[in-house]
Amino acid sequence: LTSAALTAAYRICGQAFVRLILLLFLLCTGTLAMAQYCTPTFSSGCGSDYINKFQVGSTIANSGCGTAYTYSSSPVFNGAVGCSISFSVTFGSASPEKVGIWIDYNQDGDFADANERVYNATTAATSHANSFTIPGTALTGSTRIRINATYTTNPSTDGCGAYTWGESEDYDFNITSSTPAVPAIQSASGISCTYFTANWQV
Question: N or C: which end of the chain has fewer CB within 10 A?
Fold first, then answer.
């Protein structure tokens, strides 16, 4: 091998080594991992200002005052694009709370984008019940829903923030298409958020 060939081979190997080290660094530091959601803080904890029952559609999450912020992979809430989803929430010791609810519709690891705050109650009440509609721009698949209950401070716009008393809970939220997949030999009519009529040739 000539000196020029050896120099070229050295440069190629050196570049590959640098790329390998950089890749290992990114993996170890989590830079390539999924974006991490912010963690709201509650300086006084939850006390009696905790989320006791959170229901979305027919799915119920029962909890209590453990830590002021929790993420739970169970239960998983569900909703379809374009559909109206009802929800309700109650609190510990019937304490009146302000409430914010967010869904990461574009799955980018935050709740700061347009329409991702789906409920904002700045008047404290012992329970809240309402509904939201999943927009047509929402990505289908698994994402995150967050609910904040705060005793005095209004919920933030982006689901983060620092509070005194209260609690925040995150759950997985599965978004599906409102139009069911139908084989080519079938047709569907009367499609809604909850049912449809299928016809096929036999």
Answer: C
